[in-house]
Amino acid sequence: MTDITTTIHDIYRARTHVYQHLRPTPLFHYQGLSELVGGRVFLKHENHQPVGAFKVRGGLNLVAGLSKEQKLGGLFTASTGNHGQSIAFAARAHGVKATIAVPEGANPGKVAAMRGLGAEVVFHGPDFDTARLWITEVAEKQGGTFVGPTDEPLIHGVGTYGLEIMEELPDVDVIIVPVGAGSGVCGTAIAAKSINPAVQIIGVQSAQAPTQQQSWLQGRPVEAEMTTIAEGLATRISFANTQAIMRKYLDDFVLVPDAAIEEAVRLLLIHSHNLVEEAGAASLAAAIALAGKMRDKNIVLVVSGGNIAIDRLSKIVAAGNR
Amino acid sequence: MTDITTTIHDIYRARTHVYQHLRPTPLFHYQGLSELVGGRVFLKHENHQPVGAFKVRGGLNLVAGLSKEQKLGGLFTASTGNHGQSIAFAARAHGVKATIAVPEGANPGKVAAMRGLGAEVVFHGPDFDTARLWITEVAEKQGGTFVGPTDEPLIHGVGTYGLEIMEELPDVDVIIVPVGAGSGVCGTAIAAKSINPAVQIIGVQSAQAPTQQQSWLQGRPVEAEMTTIAEGLATRISFANTQAIMRKYLDDFVLVPDAAIEEAVRLLLIHSHNLVEEAGAASLAAAIALAGKMRDKNIVLVVSGGNIAIDRLSKIVAAGNR
User: Fold this and answer.
1) Which ipTM did the prediction report?
2) A 61-120 near B (Cβ less than 8 A)
3) Which residues of B touch A52 (CB under 8 A)?
4) How distant is the Cα of B263 from the closest Cα of chain A, in angstroms?
5) Is residue A278 a contact partner of residue A235, using CB atoms and an 8 Å limit?
6) Are the Cβ atoms of A45 and B47 closer than 8 angstroms?
7) Does the pTM exceed 0.90?
8) Catalytic-role residue among B79, B206, B215, B304
9) DSSP 8-state assignment for residue B276
10) CA-CA distance, B44 to B169, in Å (whole number)?
11) Mean of the pLDDT values across residues B101-109?
12) Number of H helices and number of E strands within chain B?
C-alpha cells in the first residue's frame, strides 16, 4: 500500500506559487443546469485558465519547486494535450526549457499550441507510450527532469482549485471531478475533505476507459479496454499514488458512456455558453446520471479543457438539432 | 452638441461597486490569433463574466447608485439579451425587483436565463421598440426606474474593464471594441485614453447594422438599414451621449460583414477554445480586416457574450468543415 504524503498544508504552500501567475477561477451558479440535475449546480470554471485547463496550476507549482540545477537542465514530458500545454506555460513563466514528446501524427492544433507557448515539441514513435518511454530516457541522458502525470507537486498545485471551492461555497455538498490520471480529483479531495469531511467527492470516468475506476473498485491495478473519445480521460494504466488517495477519499466513482459525455458538451454550450472538451464535461454527465441523489444539494462540477477539434464539435452540436 | 460628463474618476468610483460582486476578468495572449492578425493579440475575456457579458459591470454600478426609494420602486428595462440578464443579475445582487419587457416570440432560452436570475419577464408587442416604449410607461406609472441602454452609470461601470486592460498591459497599442449602443466602447475609451492618450481605440459594427458608425462618420444621427445576425450590434438608432464620447475618443470605426463575424466566431473556438457570440466576435473580425496596420502592435480584442443559439452555432462550425 502506497503511503499518502500530500496534505492540505502542501496545497496551501503550492498556492503561493500558483497565485504568482494565476488568479482564482470563477465558481458560477447556472439555473438551467440546476433544473436538469435537480440540485443547485455550480461550475468551477477551470476552463477559464490561460491554457484552458486546471493542470496549469500543477505545472506552475512543480516548476517553482525545482532547484537551480533542475531548472538549468530543463523539463521533459510526454503529452498530446493539456498536460503538455501546462508544462510549457509553467516552464516559460520561469524561463525554463520544456521538451515535449508526442507520437507521430499528433493533433497539429495541440502541437501548435505547445510550440506557441515556447516548448520544443519532438515527434517520436507510433503511440503515446512509446513517446513517453523515449522522452524519459532522453531526460536522463541529458540530465533533465522528467515530469510524470501524477507527480506530487502537480497534485499540490491543482488542489488549489479545491481550496477555492471551499472558500467560495463552504456549504458545498458534492464535488464531481473527471478522472484522467487522477491528479485533479486527488488534490480536490484532500483540500475539501480536510476542511469538511462530509463533502462528497465523486470521480467520473468514461465507460469506454474505466481503468482508474476498476482499479479503485477492486483495490488493485486493473488494465481495461480504452476506446473513449474523451482524450483527457483516456488512461490505460493506474497510478499507485493517486489510487491510494482515491481509495481513502472518494465517496463514489462512476462511469458514463461517451454518448452522455457528448450530450454534456452540448448542454454546457446551451446552458453555460462555455466550450468544454469531452473529458471536462464528464462531470455534468455524471451529475445527470446521479440526478436522483442530487436533490436540494449544492453541487460543484469541475469543468476543464477546451481542446475539442472543430469537426468533432460540429458533430456534437449538429446531433442536438435532430 | 451633447456635453461629455463621464471621466476616469467616475470609473474608479464605479469600481468599488463592481468589485463587490465581480473579479477582474482575464486578459490572455493567444499565439494562433496573433499569427492571423500579425501583432500580439490578447483577448479581454468579458465572456468569463457570470452572465457572459461585460454589461453586468454597468448594471451593478447602476443599482448600487440608486436611492433607497428607487430600490423599493424596482427597475424596469427592455432587452432580449445580455442587457436584460445583466440588470437581472445586478438587481438580484442588491435585493431589488427587476421587470424586463421582451417582444412576443422572444428567444425562450434568453427569457429562461432572465427568469433564472429572478427577473420578472413580461411579453409585450410585436417588436423590441414596442416593448421598450411600453415598459417605459409602466415604469413611470408604477413609480419605478427605467434603465436605458446608455445611462451614464452603465458607462462608468463597464469602463472598469478598460482600467483592467491598462493595468495589466500598460503598453497596449490598440483596443478594438464591438459597438451596440456604445456603452462598452465609451467606457473603454475614457479609461484608456485618460491613462495613455496614444492608445488607439477602434469601434466595430456589422456592415449590416451601421447606424452608430454612420452617425459617427457624419456627426449627426443617421438611421441605417439593420439586418445583421449579430443581435448585440443590432441597433437602429444612435444615442446622443455615446455618440459625443465616440466622436471625441475613437480613432477609427470600422464595419465588417456578417460573414466575417461568423468566421471570427469559428476562429475563436479553434484558437482560444471560447464560445463568443457574433457581436462579441466582431472585434476579431475587425482585427483581421485591419491586419495590415496591426504589425508588431499589442492588440486587445474585447470579447463578450455567449448568447448564441445552438442551431446557429451548428451552422457556423459546420461551415468551417467545407
Assistant:
1) 0.92
2) 109, 112-113, 115-117
3) 273
4) 13
5) no
6) no
7) yes
8) B304
9) -
10) 11
11) 87
12) 14, 10
